[in-house]
Amino acid sequence: MTVATSQKLPLDWAIILYMATIHLVALLAFLPSNFSWGAVGVTLFLYWVTGALGITLGFHRLVTHRSFQAPKWLEYFLVFCGTLACQGGPIQWVGLHRIHHKYSDTQNDPHNSNLGFWWSHLGWMLHKIPADNDVPRYTQDIAEDPFYQFCQKYMILIQVALGLLLYVLGGWSFVIWGIFVRLVMVFHFTWFVNSATHKFGYQSHESDDHSKNCWWVAVLTFGEGWHNNHHAYQYSARHGLSWWEIDITWMTIQLLQFLGLATNVKLAPTEKTN
């Protein structure tokens, strides 16, 4: 992998335009004519679908770390939900996250927190980073799967289809809130795991990086804020290891396990929890 600092990396103008457009259109939600409680409800529901089921449960704990197994139909459903978060296709997302864990807080980490809060939160995405070229090496288990390839290739069209559905159901207010406001929410809440949890909070385990447990990020991301625990036990389906570390996603996995839909659930050593 080629090492490069943020100052030497070329800007990715397509991503910059993409991010700027989503954030600017989301500002239209402040117009009174675009507000409705129905639109807010749709936003919160889709935030749960894309953030909790898609990114946290699907992309992260199931696919990236294989902390549990699920029927293929359920895996595909969760991956589809994650694709709706528009954070890149599943192959790219999983590959970059696996690279992050291998090189956490070193020069080869795509969002190395040593380069500052802005870089780890958003800045790294606005550049053409060397890690992009290494994604195929870290995604050999999913790269040839036709469904993953479909989601990777047609992420934007899938989002457009969702937008059309929301327009039919509730007009422009549903589109602005359910697509653009929701995407901004899921974007930044997810990015806080890369930035805030490498800066704020406490460490309860040795992880050889700056990862920390941050309660407010855990609230926003359904348990992902217990990041030091996760970096210490990357394979664990449960991130909140102490009784006060509430982990909604772990509760969801327990429900799936009860229903027979989650098997081979991997956990941190019991003596490390309390």
From TrEMBL:
InterPro entries in UniProt: Acyl-CoA_DS, FA_desaturase_dom
One GO process term, biological-process aspect: fatty acid biosynthetic process
Cofactor dependency: Fe(2+)
Transmembrane domains' residue ranges: 12-31, 37-59, 154-170
Record keywords: Fatty acid biosynthesis, Fatty acid metabolism, Iron, Lipid biosynthesis, Lipid metabolism, Membrane, Oxidoreductase, Transmembrane, Transmembrane helix
A cellular-component GO term for this protein: membrane
Origin: domain of life: Bacteria
Broad class of where this protein is predominantly found: membrane
Localization: Membrane
Membrane topology: Multi-pass membrane protein
EC number: 1.14.19.1
Ranges for domain Fatty acid desaturase: 36-247
GO MF annotation terms: stearoyl-CoA 9-desaturase activity
Family classification: Belongs to the fatty acid desaturase type 2 family.
The protein, known as: Stearoyl-CoA 9-desaturase
Species: Rippkaea orientalis (strain PCC 8801 / RF-1) (Cyanothece sp. (strain PCC 8801))
